[in-house]
Amino acid sequence: MLAVLGGLGAALAFATATLCNARAARMIGAGPLLAWVMLVGLLLVAPVVAVREVPDDLDADAVRWLALAGAGNLLGLFLAYRALTLGKVGIVAPILSTEGAITAVISVAAGERLAVSATAVLVIIAVGVMLAAGSPDPDPRATSRSAPALAVGAAVAFGVGLYATARVSATLPVVWAVLPARLLGVALITLPLALRGRLRIMRPAVPLVLLSGFCEVAGFFAFGLGSRHGIAVSAVLASQFGGLAAVAAYALFGERLARVQVAGVATVVAGVALLSAIQA
Predict the structure, then answer these.
(1) Long-range contacts of 261-265 (CB under 8 A, 24+ apart)
(2) Residue 253, domain extent
(3) I want to staple 99 with a disulfide (CB 3.0 to 4.6 A). Which of 113, 159, 190, 197 is the partner?
(4) Which residue, among 260, 261, 235, 266, has the nearest Cα to 250 in the 3D structure?
(5) Contact (CB, 8 A) for 134 and 260
(6) Cα gap 250→156, rounded to integer Å
(7) CA atoms of 147 and 177, how far apart (whole Å)
(8) How far apart are CA 163 and CA 273, in angstroms?
(9) Is the pTM of this model over 0.85?
């Protein structure tokens, strides 16, 4: 049951972050947005790491998983932010949410075993995600053709990063799994932009950036805790952020959903309910 709760908590946090990012990215651009979000995340995580002792399990193997988790998360966020500047949330978010299915496939390929019933429900949920992602755009407003491709690249990067996060969360405190992406982001993006005088931000974007930075950290904490009780289950449930973000974008931003997309979201919701019952 903890795997379910962790995955759903991550989904809610990531959906909120996606909605904030969609607005902020169009205000200040993908690069500056990523720089600020990483800085906010580091300011949240660094004090927690500073007051704790270095874990005994922080060996060379753990460092490799940490580096992979950080790189996957950072690359995924940049591609996702870029996609959100070019496309609508209702199209980009469901594609991004296939990260959970990608992580689940990686975890099963690596040897994780699931009950037949849980495996069947995971397949149903993955189908729902793909239906939502593959629907045509009913809105006459143009969406750049590169947005879906960028979202696919982001989903793959996120999937690898999530799996690495889950692996390291099994032996290290979750905060150590969240730290690498923030360190890399500040070192490779925030500081260079600041030194070049390009770390800009608009006042309306400030609350969006703050909330996004918090939700990114909170989502990974929730996923890291849930993955200790089942990587595949937590990963696929975390992917529900795409459906949640698409529905919220329809209500908040007036984005229209295609019938196939609605069917995909409904399939996902039904799958979540069934999986929760099985896990309980």
Answers:
(1) 261/90, 261/94, 261/131, 261/132, 261/135, 263/128, 263/131, 264/94, 264/127, 264/128, 264/129, 264/130, 264/131, 264/132, 264/133, 264/135, 265/128, 265/132
(2) 2-279
(3) 159
(4) 261
(5) yes
(6) 26
(7) 29
(8) 24
(9) no
Closest CA to 39 of 239, 194, 268: 194
DSSP secondary structure, 101-154, as one string: HHHHHHHHHTT----HHHHHHHHHHHHHHHHHHH-----SS---THHHHHHHHH
H/E element, 237: helix 231-238
Q: Contact 95/148 with Cβ under 8 angstroms?
A: yes
DSSP letter at 204 equals: G
Q: Encoding tokens for residue 55?
A: 């874990």
The domain total for the chain is 1
Tens of pLDDT, residue by residue, the chain (280 residues): 778 888 889 999 999 999 999 999 999 999 999 999 999 999 999 998 888 878 777 888 888 989 998 999 999 999 999 999 988 888 788 888 877 777 777 877 777 776 778 778 878 877 877 776 666 666 655 456 688 889 889 989 988 988 887 788 777 887 887 888 999 999 999 999 999 988 989 999 999 999 999 999 999 888 878 877 877 777 778 878 888 888 888 888 887 777 887 787 778 777 776 776 675 5
H-run or E-run covering 92? helix 89-96
With tokens 């608009």, the residue in question is 202
